[in-house]
Each structure stands twice: as structure tokens, then as C-alpha cells.
Amino acid sequence: MTTLKAKLQDDLNAAIKERDELRSSTLRLTLAAITKEEVAGKTKRELSDDEVQKVIAKEAKKRREAADAFAQGGRAESAEREKAEGVILDAYLPQQLSDEELEQIVAAAVAEATSAGAEGPRAMGAVMKIVNPKVAGRAEGGRVAATVKKLLAG
User: Fold this and answer.
1) pTM reported for the whole predicted model
2) How many other C-beta atoms lie within 10 A of the C-beta of residue 25?
3) Residues 62, 49, 137, CA angle at the centre, nearest 5°?
4) Plot region of 137 (φ>0 → left; ψ -120 to 50 → alpha; else → beta)
5) pLDDT, tens only, 80-116
6) Long-range CB contacts (< 8 A, 24+ apart) of 108-112?
7) Residues 6 or more apart from 108 whose CB is under 8 A from it?
8) Could you give the CA distance from residue 70 to residue 113 in angstroms, rounded to a whole number?
């Protein structure tokens, strides 16, 4: 068992003993998603810590989107629960980049891409290829794309 998955399992056991319903249900759902990913495909395999982290990030994103949908639908209690679950999952993810840090990384990538001959809005793909490996897991794709567009336009 990978160390991150083992940590999730240990935290689930602790949450159950403490009778923390929110934390235990969130961790149960996340471990179920990890198991589902492990058995997807033709053969069962064990996920690496990076793959487990991607599953956790996907689950956290689902919670944020659900919280927004509930808030727009006027269901504040459900939105708050989804936000709380997202906060629990965020604790298992690496620290997110600030807007300033992301902008610096993207600016360097834009300079690198333009020196290679890419110009204007068409440079988006080239810049994203440079930026994505540098920010993997530390910034959402939509946030990265918006920053790239802003810097390419300006």
C-alpha cells in the first residue's frame, strides 16, 4: 500500500473512532474512488502516490463544483457540507501556487515560447506544454489557462 493511501486509511480509522461523521464519510468516498481507479482496466494494480494524489485532486474538484452548484441552487447547507469536504481533501494535496507564483512561471514560459517562434494567441498550446509539468498538481488547469491567455493577450 502506498504511503498516501495508508495515511488516508489511518485517518479514516481515527475519524471513525472519534465519531467524526463528515471526515469519515469523506475519506470513505475518497478511498472508494482510489479503489475504483485501481481496478479500472483489465488488471488490478496499485496506484503510486502521484496517482493517488490525482484521484484526491479530482475528488476535491468535484466537491468545489458541487458546492458552487448547490450555492447557485439556493441550498446553502449542502454547499457548506461540500466545501467542508473539500477542505478535508485539500489537506492531502500539495500547497497550491499563489497567483503571483503562477504568473511568474507562466511569464517565463511565454518568454521561452516566443523565443522559439510562437506568437499571439496561437502560442497557447506551446506555452501550456511548458507550464503544465512545472505546475502539475499545484494549480488547476483552468486557472493556468486563464493566466496564459491573459499574459499572451497583454
Assistant:
1) 0.75
2) 15
3) 50
4) left
5) 999 999 899 888 888 877 778 878 888 888 777 777 7
6) 109/134, 109/148, 110/148, 110/151, 110/152
7) none
8) 40
